[in-house]
Amino acid sequence: MLKHEKWYAYVFIAPMVIGYLIFLAFPILSIVGISFTDWSLIGSPNFIGLKNYERIATDMTFWVTVKNTLLFTAGFVPLKIIIAFLLALLILKRVPGIGLFRTAIFTPVVVSLVVWAVVWKYILATDYGLINSFLHALGYDRIPWLYHDQLTLPAVIVVSVLKGLGLTMIIFLAALSDVPKMYYEAAIMDGASKFKKLLHITIPLITPAIFLNVVITVINSMKIFGQIYVMTHGGPGTSTHVFIYYIYKQAFKLFEFGYGSAISLVFFLIVLAMTIFQWNLRKRWVHHEQ
Amino acid sequence: MNNKKLMSYLPGYALLISVTAIILIPFYWMVVTSVKREDEIMSFPPSWWPEKWQFQNYFELFQAIPFHKYMFNSIYIAVVVTVFTCFLAALAGFAFAKLHFPFRNALFLMLLSSMMIPVEVTTIPLFLLFSKLGLTNTHFPLIVPTILGSTGMFGVFLLRQFYLTIPDEISEAARIDGCTPWMTFHRIMLPMVVPAISSLAIFAFLHSWNEFFEPLIYINSDHLYTVPLGLSIFSGDLEPRWHLIMAASVVATLPLLLVFFFAQQRIIEGISMTGSK
User: Fold this and answer.
1) Given B20, B129, B232, which is nearest A229 (Cβ)?
2) What ipTM does this complex have?
3) Could you list the pLDDT tens digit for every one of the 277 residues in chain B?
4) How far from the centroid of its chain's Cα atoms is residue B22's Cα?
5) Phi then psi dihedrals of residue A232, to 5 deg
6) What is the DSSP letter of A145?
7) Which of A43, A83, A214, B122 stands 20 to 30 A from A165 (CA)?
8) Which residues of B touch A15 (CB under 8 A)?
């Protein structure tokens, strides 16, 4: 009996193991190899050693890309986490009609990212956009939201936050409704203020959810692509070039597979380092493991 | 006293209402724009209500681009991805949770490590591989690497967690009664993990439906476009025809929105479950 079980198990997991080898392990190993070549659309690839990495070091656009990705993360993560947390606290109160707010805020999650970006591109349009019509009505000049070196990245950040706010909020909401009421009752007896209850009871008890949301949001912000492609094409200039956009540009517009692989590998290592760093942080920071 | 209490709630509700409004305005704007006349769109400031509801914009859309084909492609790809992801992840998750075999933990850790790999990083080698095999400009790279790659791995992980909550006595009893692992899986275990599978199904469907990077890289022919790819190309025209683009956005959004409104509770629970595992 037990002998058979082993073979059943191997058959059951075979598709996933084979898939892992072909679609995940093989590509990761390959980009290391390809990054040492000058592989492009024409001619056969030659081994060029570390040339691609030397090129990264002096490629201004690459460093602008790194800066933009970090700026995006620095704006996106706190904005999304804080707003989602505040909304979850408000929606937790069982006021009649609150369910409608929850539904409305969640709705963009089931809308395709490209649709969301396209609609916002129209709302932010310079000549006949909705936002500029508000500004016009208030007596201000129109702003070229998607053609402005300083404002375009923040505009994309806000659009991205709105898209995924509902999901982050729901994860907070689930954690908040699990906090046992007795803690609050004890705190009220002790005369704790609302803010103190939040700081000393609610937040410590939901650290796993906060941690989870931060990890997911950080990783997602590093991988942002669709809204950049649709709304700005990395522009104006290079002001909204982010990591995946730059990989896309090098590998699939300029067909520099070798250089694109080197950038991909650097990106992978950065994401990996951030993930490991965050998991280590978890050990010190999360009070209450689920 | 009462007034003071009201004042303390005010900033919170102001935030709630303004965020909700900012989220709902795009939906309103999309619908209203989709029935405006072309010259009305070019006027500034834009009108909040169309002069005349031009429903023929929707016919014009299907004449301008084969949007029904994009819809069909997106739906069938998402359905295939969802069905196979759920089946294969349920099967592998069962093996990792309930069967005993050499290297079980090592193999599971190996699969788990894939959660740290951003899919975008794998694209260059896969693109080179698929072009060697003549599989670019087909739907193959949008379907198979999703099922057997990142989405599938996530499914295995999610379902294994769920199987672990089912007492071992149940599968042991089935074994003593002479069930093969396959019978235990599809007669006993599968019905017990339906909630987890439906969460995975929602996750896999939305993920595939939203997928943009892969179609952008692999697909060149108009009749193979998915909705996100077709819409991004259509909206990238030098002189975008916004009334048609918004009509396309409405068509692309409506089916999912309807499903969402009818199965809201289930979908929100499902998504928060996949989010928190």
Assistant:
1) B232
2) 0.90
3) 467 666 767 788 888 999 999 999 999 999 999 998 888 887 778 888 888 888 999 999 999 999 999 999 999 999 999 999 999 999 999 999 999 999 999 999 999 888 888 889 999 999 999 999 999 999 999 999 999 998 999 999 999 999 998 888 888 888 888 888 888 888 888 888 998 899 899 889 989 998 999 999 999 999 999 999 999 999 988 888 999 999 999 999 998 898 888 888 888 877 777 765 4
4) 23
5) -130, -15
6) G
7) B122
8) 88, 91-92, 148, 152
